[in-house]
Amino acid sequence: MQPIDRLRAVASRSPLPHPFPHRRRKRCRKRRRRVAPPVGTQPRMNPYKRMRPASGSAPLTTYPCRGFLALRLGWRHGNKMKISSPFLVHVLLIALLSATTTPPSTEALNAIKSKTFLSPAISLSPGSVSDKWYLDIAFPRGHLALKSFNGEVVDEHGVPVPLHETYLHHWVVEPYYVPKGNTDAHDDLSKIIPARNSGVCKDTMGQYYGLGSETRRTSTWVPDPYGIEIGDPEAAPEGYEERWLLNVHAIDTRGVVDKLACTECRCDLYNVTVDKEGRRIPEGYPGGFHCCYDGTQCELKDGFVVETRKVFLRYTVMWLDWSDSLLPVRIYIFDVTDRALLEGKSETACKVEGCSSSEDRAKNDCVHVEATKQILPRGGVIVFGVAHQHSGGIGSSLHGEDGRLLCESMATYGEGKEAGDEAGYIVGMSTCYPKPGTVTVRDGEALTVVSNYSSERPHTGVMGLFYILVAEHRQLPVAAGKQPGLCFSFPVPCKLAAPPS
Q1: What does the pLDDT look like over 30-52, one tens digit per residue?
Q2: First CA to last CA distance, the chain
């Protein structure tokens, strides 16, 4: 749950305790009853249930009409007062709000908007692969600032589907432009104009958001006062309007002979000889995108039969209406397999050779390291960063031209069977939220991305991406004599950074 969700959940509960509780007590005293608990037992503190006295027991005074105060403020046991959790949450919320120089209005609390959508249905049978692109998906419209995008695979009943049944290889979303009022753009792709991110890849990785198996436990929250600007009417080509597309690559691993090998697109299990374009797969290519494209089938165990089912990508978008109080960020995606600067080639996915040295195994040094350099077209302040890896991944880091660490993102593995904690799968990647203004990069700086994988066993088709959000070197405009209001971004402090010197 995002920080703003938690605040809203508290704010939407029943009202705070009565501002003048003594008035309630005066009314309650008229209804005072003297009752007693059974002999040898402790009184059951239920403010809504009257207790009948037992012969020989000491009387006890209760206040049945104090139900509201009992639930909000707690109930007295002897000389101790038990404080209820909702009341403590209310107190903490009041303290948070009062800590701001300018108390936020109701409009400020409700500024963040959120909506959950479903992708078109994805039909999957055991071992099957779906890798489809969906145009004109349901998405917030208008001139907005995106704050987060979170997705997960669910079944027809809305129940989350675990990775060991449907492996989410990746999902990506990105905007594009079509002629205004055009209803047949889906049939004529020549009319579509891509609206890509800021780089650094030229022909691939144009998405605004994208994750994989780690999606449930990886934050995509854009810290305040920043936002990903979309829907700017001046940005669209004349006569065009913005729409959004979604790509979901899912692999049904129910009943397959080797779940991990199927999720790593190992070619010998898919029994394919050509890629999705009909080109012959190169000799010695062990596995990757070329073997697990839409419509392919991973090998099943003998006799395994299960019905085809429909799943969906359920995605939640949070946003703000765009205003001058927000700062736009640029999206950059680095691919560790893009070695154009070093070797003039790019592969998108790579393989990890197994650790062959027994000495390395004994020292637990079986780590495969991939690294590459890429040029950042335009510098600024890094406000967010996260990596994307597949099973076997340990973590990734991004470094400046002088070797300084800009951001590090580490993998979290599940330990159980339920969705979000699947053993053997990456279920989360840590994110970077630098203190505002402290991590900067310059125009044209050569950055190095490093991706570390365990080589305890071989891996195929693995990826090593790094996403960063970069803002301009300028301060958020604040009205004279006023301070910014409530900061919803945690753990980033609600503090504006001065431009770097």
Answers
A1: 444 444 444 444 444 333 333 34
A2: 37
